């Protein structure tokens, strides 16, 4: 058995990417454009992009909500996963990021399936009308519980909810780490475990982005009584 090292897990990730995802000039162009504009390199890895794409297809999603557009890389994956008359609504706080994303999304040929709402999630989410069939949460981690609450409000029983970046290099399980981001991830995970609206699990991931994780949930019912920090 190979030793678990960054070099080896990145080799496996490259093998999975080459074998199961392949190279896509449109997606690679989207990443290149966001890099050239100085956006942080925090888009999902190709294997994770393919995962959310497949989840959209498996769930039969027609309406998708994405919280955190960045340069549009994950948005393109999601838009490719919905039918031609489907719609991905994606929220981006920074207008400059949204402009880069719009150009990449249009170039990918899925612009007619994507609407970008510019503004902070906490401000935009109350203006949306559901239901959404899949919700992908990949924005500021401090607000994960707030975003999960809105995912439940805007979803329906059977809605798939995906939360990215849930392991944070192992820090999520280290009680000595109490940064705002890590505490936000913990609140979100605690909410997924305690809130009866969700049935969830989480997996650690090792890919080109490093050691992290993803939580996947299904919305089971619509109930009131849980606040935005996941406590009754």
TrEMBL record:
SUPFAM superfamilies to which the protein is assigned, alphabetical: S-adenosyl-L-methionine-dependent methyltransferases
InterPro entries: Cation-dep_OMT, SAM-dependent_MTases_sf, SAM_O-MeTrfase
EC number(s) given by UniProt: 2.1.1.-
CDD domains listed in its UniProt record: AdoMet_MTases
Descriptive protein name: O-methyltransferase
GO terms, molecular function: methyltransferase activity
Enzyme class: transferase
